[in-house]
Each structure stands twice: as structure tokens, then as C-alpha cells.
Design goal:
With about 160 residues, the protein is α+β, with helices and mostly antiparallel strands. It contains 2 helices and 9 strands; from the N terminus they run βββαββββαββ. The two termini are about 20 Å apart. Pfam families: Cass2.
Length: about 160
């Protein structure tokens, strides 16, 4: 593992298909996402008991694509993983993330710093000869979330070599 300040590149891993239920946040600009995503995390956490088949009630998951996507893929999803998608609570949505291979970086710190740490992961992937999968889903899997202190693994999809 390579350590960089409050981030540690964890290497490459494959995740199985994930079934998610939560809220979809769609905004016009990055600044608006910075305001709206934390609100969605708080709301989802307060309503987690409404979600059936919840796998881990502590592990919040953010999902997004970096390229211009079809309308149905646009935005940022704030979710919990479930075993099966059924009886989606009012106002929530479901999303299925296919199995993918990822470069992974572990981060601990303030939510406002997360966007900036992706450059460390991208640099490491470039140095190791991996190519990003621009059409894949990026994941942010939080084992602790708050506005001031987060523990999160950032998953950047890569093209299998």
C-alpha cells in the first residue's frame, strides 16, 4: 500500500454486482452538488429503517458516472446496498451497479476534500498502466460519514487488462 497524507492507495479489486436503494441527486453545477449531497446522506440515514433487505446499515454508498451520461444515469446516487430490490420506499429510487474492476483509494477527512484526492488515485492508476473506464460507475463507500469527518473508500472503474 502507498500512503499519501490521509489517503492510502489500496490497489485494484473487483466488486460483484450491487443492488442499491436511496436517493438520486441531480444538480446543475458542482457547487450545488456540494450542498445537496450531504442533505441526501442525512435524509437517507434518517429513513434507513424503511429499506427492506438492507445489507449493512452503516455503509452508505455514493455512485456516479464521470462522463456525460444518458439522462437516466445523470446525477449522484446516495444509497444503501440491499440483497434484493423490493418495495422501494416513497421518494427513493433503485440502481443496479454491474460487477466492475476498480482502483481503490482509502480516504479519511472532510467531505470537501474528497474531490481533490481522486487525482492521487488517477496518478497511481496511470503509473501502474491502468486505463480508466469512463463509462463505468464510480463508487464512494463510506464506513463513517459526517459533514466533518469521513472514512471512505473511493472506487474508480478501470478497464480490465
Amino acid at each position: 500500500m502507498e500512503k499519501v497524507d490521509s489517503h492510502v492507495v489500496k490497489g485494484v479489486t473487483e466488486l460483484k454486482e450491487m443492488k442499491l436503494i436511496g436517493f438520486r441527486v441531480v444538480c446543475e453545477d458542482t457547487e450545488s452538488y456540494g450542498r445537496e449531497i450531504p442533505k441526501a446522506f442525512v435524509l437517507l440515514d434518517s429513513r434507513r429503517d424503511e429499506i427492506k433487505n438492507l445489507i449493512d446499515p452503516v455503509k452508505l454508498i455514493g455512485a456516479f458516472k464521470v462522463v456525460d451520461s444518458p439522462h437516466e444515469d445523470d446525477g449522484y446516487w446516495v444509497c444503501f446496498e440491499v440483497n434484493e430490490i423490493e418495495d422501494i420506499p416513497e421518494g427513493m429510487v433503485s440502481l443496479v451497479i454491474p460487477a466492475q474492476i476498480f482502483g481503490v483509494l482509502h480516504f479519511q477527512g472532510h467531505a470537501s476534500q474528497i474531490f481533490g484526492v481522486y487525482s492521487h488515485l488517477h496518478q497511481w492508476l496511470d503509473e501502474k498502466g491502468y486505463r480508466g473506464n469512463l463509462e463505468g460507475w464510480n463508487l464512494e463507500i463510506y464506513s463513517r460519514w459526517s459533514e466533518n469527518d469521513n472514512v471512505v473508500n473511493l472506487y474508480n472503474p478501470i478497464i480490465p487488462s
